[in-house]
Specification:
The complex is a heterotrimer of chains A (257), B (259) and C (258). With 259 residues, chain B is an all-alpha fold. Chain B contains ten helices and no strands. The termini of chain C are far apart. The chains are: A mainly alpha (257), B mainly alpha (259), C alpha/beta (258). Chains in contact: A-B, A-C. Chains A and B meet through helix 1, helix 4, helix 5, helix 9 and helix 10 of A and helix 1, helix 4, helix 5, helix 8 and helix 9 of B.
């Protein structure tokens, strides 16, 4: 009985929290349907949602979505792998830091989206250019987050490990990397958002597949309700993936107070 | 530790110089097609030509104008909303889910909507930039103002300050570091979005320049544009950092170490 | 029988951020026998913790010698266990996995590790908490876990850096008794850094008093007399505390003056 009540309570809390979005949705529908805002510029929300029917059956919607997700996922995976290793090495060995550090610092402020035409020049319009772009774009934030995390490890933790018999390598893996996890996961969260931005940007600029391409194609073709629908899909993807990362973070960091 | 005692700034330049040297070696060796990797010398020549002709400055001007206008709009609206969320519980209830949904989403996907609404001109670009920056600014303004220690507020109230005065005299200065952090994050974002909108819509500005170079498959021009963009970006970011240091000269974070 | 710790003519300085050098320790000569309980006491900044870290091999030295059981100290090792004031438990590991860490590194089999760890956990009074994370424990409990972790690798020497400094007075008293019981049972050498005079006199057999910076050994006071349970009334104890306190105070006074 008590569990039922608390489930009901949480549902009500969630509803209360997100109800402004519902209000905006209703406002959208109202303004559009009544013609307050031109239906051309703002198709009614119900029309947008209805267009999903056609989208998912007639166009290769799922293929495009899958390609977009795949590109972002792969680019991010590569960035995470290289970034964590590089950040850890840089923070643990002064020689690596001296060699790679200045490069990271110089390249970090550069807007990675400027690389879009370059990656297309190198790899063409297909998957590789997008994956490479996302890899480059997310590599540095993750490297820096890892670096800061590892550098910030309290020395008494490292010393304890040493006095308990851990070798240099073991200390890096057992202690540095673990203690840096909060920072790494925070970096992962921002990189995830960044990967989406770079993905959509590059697909809008030049592509012949993917959700960004689909948006442009629908827009060029005047199918605005459908275009809104795909944009909403992208918004939803960004939100859901961010939530997932937050859940992952909470799980991995359950040892925190 | 015995070792080289080169002055540190020089030492830090070495890896960068090394990379440029490696670039030059790769380009000259003929192992890579000059289209894919033009020689750094050719790129440098192109940059100098851009500077001499003044085109790069014109484009920088357009890009910065759009970026900063969009940023300014986002800063004005976002800071206000963020502060409003602290003083008004209704405002917090209303904007909270909007910010938490809007923050992680790729705002650039809204560009086609803005083009639909505002056409192919600067208006849609600036609207896009503003939309892209506003969430970061709002979130940081809210965090800064809500994090103001209660003791500060209570002290002011005890000394007789009205609600508005508390806001302006205590909360605002205390929240300024965090608000500025939001601005510092938003400025490079505004630049990035400007570049992407220029690339998508074409025309002038650094993004447009870059797109045209790539359309003509002019790889030295592409590389030159990238370098120019990087420099412009670095100047803007460092400018913001100096501004922060000046505005927050009273803050702990700028205190000289007395150890 | 070789001495547990032998320090000869040790001098230590470190570089400061503006390029200068600070002399932290000078002219340190100290011998500690196996099985002794020695305290190191001194005013803030005198370098007592630094001296401990040098003994532990966490910081390297250039001038002088530090020997542990006849071998020169060149780095940390499981023969010199350390316990820190901040506990330094690995927060992402449970109590059990913290205590088994050293045994893991030694390649001890899992079942044996757990068995030994559980015994130690019981000894320090943490039974039932082996699967808790450090964030779920009180300060006293965390310190007990830290001690169990260090004892797990059976070091000959226990280096303790103000281990009870972060605990409240009650818990501190309980921990002190527990430490003495452990010392009694294991016969380990204990080097105990503290700024608390009563604690130093109560726990140890000798109190090594350090001067202000640059730290040197000012005097070593014998405190190896019988300490009754009701130590407050013990005349000998109080005399010793008085004496040591006055010496420490004079160091502080000369710090003010300079």
């Amino acid at each position: 009985m008590a569990r039922q009540n608390s489930l009901a309570k949480t549902s009500i809390d969630v509803f209360k929290k997100y109800s402004p979005l519902l209000i905006l949705a209703l406002l959208w529908e109202f303004c559009s349907r009544t013609g307050l805002v031109s239906q051309y510029a703002l198709p009614p929300l119900t029309d947008v949602l209805a267009s999903f029917r056609w989208l998912t059956t007639d166009t290769a919607f799922f293929t495009h979505a899958g390609m977009s997700l795949g590109r972002a996922g792969l680019g991010l995976l590569l960035a995470v792998t290289f970034g964590i290793v590089m950040g850890t090495l840089m923070a643990s060995f002064r020689s690596v830091d001296a060699l790679v550090g200045p490069l990271v610092q110089t390249l970090y402020p550069m807007p990675k989206s400027a690389l879009i035409p370059l990656t297309i020049m190198w790899f063409g319009l297909g998957h590789s250019s997008k994956i490479f772009l996302i890899f480059l774009g997310c590599l540095l934030p993750i490297t820096i987050a890892t670096y800061n995390g590892v550098k910030g490890v309290d020395r008494v933790l490292m010393w304890s490990g040493a006095s308990l018999g851990a070798s240099r390598l073991q200390r890096i893996i057992d202690i540095s990397f673990m203690a840096a996890q909060p920072a790494i996961l925070a970096g992962l969260r921002t990189s995830l958002a960044l990967s989406f931005v770079l993905l959509v940007s590059s697909e809008l600029v030049m592509s012949n597949e993917g959700l960004g391409f689909l948006i442009r194609m629908l827009g060029d073709g005047g199918l605005y309700a459908e275009m809104f629908a795909v944009i909403l899909t992208v918004v939803a993807m960004g939100f859901v993936s961010d939530r997932l990362i937050q859940l992952l973070t909470a799980r991995v960091l359950r040892w925190r107070d | 530790m015995a070792g080289l005692t080169l002055p540190t700034p020089l030492l830090r330049m070495l890896p960068i110089a090394g990379v440029i040297l490696f670039w030059w070696a790769m380009a000259s060796s003929g192992a890579v097609r000059p289209f894919l990797l033009p020689s750094p010398i050719v790129v440098a020549e192109r940059i100098l030509a851009d500077v001499a002709s003044g085109t790069v400055f014109v484009n920088v001007g357009y890009t910065l104008y759009r970026a900063l206008t969009g940023f300014a709009i986002a800063a004005a609206i976002g800071t206000t909303i963020g502060l409003l969320m602290v003083v008004s519980r209704t405002a917090k209830w209303f904007f909270d889910p909007i910010v938490s949904v809007g923050y992680p989403m790729p705002k650039i996907s809204l560009l086609p909507i803005f083009i639909l609404w505002f056409g192919l001109d600067d208006a849609s670009k600036i609207a896009m930039i503003a939309a892209g920056c506003i969430f970061v600014i709002t979130a940081n303004a809210y965090a800064g103002a809500s994090g103001v220690e209660r003791q500060f507020v209570w002290s002011a109230q005890m000394l007789g300050a009205s609600r508005l005065r508390v806001l302006t005299d205590v909360v605002l200065p205390a929240a300024t570091p965090q608000i500025l952090t939001g601005y510092q994050i938003a400025i490079p974002v505004s630049l990035i979005i400007t570049l992407v909108t220029e690339m998508i819509m074409g025309g002038d500005g650094l993004g447009g320049q870059l797109l045209i170079a790539s359309r003509y498959a002019n790889s030295p021009a592409v590389f030159a544009s990238i370098v120019e963009i990087a420099i412009a970006g670095a100047i803007v970011v460092n400018g913001m950092r100096l501004l922060r240091r000046k505005l927050l000269h009273w803050h702990e974070e700028n205190a000289v170490s007395t150890d | 029988m070789t001495k547990a710790i032998e320090i000869e003519n040790l001098e230590f300085s470190y570089a400061t951020s503006d390029g200068g050098r600070v002399l932290a320790l000078t002219n340190i000569d100290l011998s500690i026998e196996s099985g002794e309980f020695v305290s190191i006491l001194g005013p803030s900044g005198c370098g007592k913790s630094t001296l401990l870290y040098l003994m532990g091999g966490f910081i390297s030295y250039e001038n002088g010698r530090i020997l542990s059981h006849g071998n020169q100290v060149t780095g940390p090792g499981p023969d010199r266990g350390i316990v820190f004031q901040q506990f330094a438990l690995f927060p992402w590991r449970t109590v059990l996995r913290n205590v088994t860490y050293g045994l893991e590194k030694q390649g001890v089999a899992k079942a044996a590790r757990i068995e030994r760890a559980m015994r130690l956990i019981k000894e320090v009074g943490l039974s039932g908490f082996e699967n808790s994370y450090p964030s779920q424990l009180s300060g006293g409990m965390r310190q007990r876990a830290a001690i169990a972790r260090t004892l797990a690798v059976d070091p000959d020497i226990l280096l303790m850096d103000e281990p009870f400094g972060a605990l409240d007075a009650q818990t501190r008293g309980v921990m002190q008794e527990q430490l003495l019981r452990i010392w009694d049972a294991t016969g380990k050498t204990i080097v105990f850094v503290t700024h608390d005079v009563r604690e130093a006199v109560y726990l140890s057999q000798r109190v090594v008093m350090m001067s202000k910076r640059p730290g040197t050994i000012k005097e070593i006071v014998q405190t190896n007399f019988d300490k009754a349970n009701d130590v407050e009334a013990d005349e000998q104890f109080n005399r010793a505390v008085s004496y040591v306190s006055s010496q420490v105070r004079s160091e502080y006074a000369s710090m003010e003056a300079s």
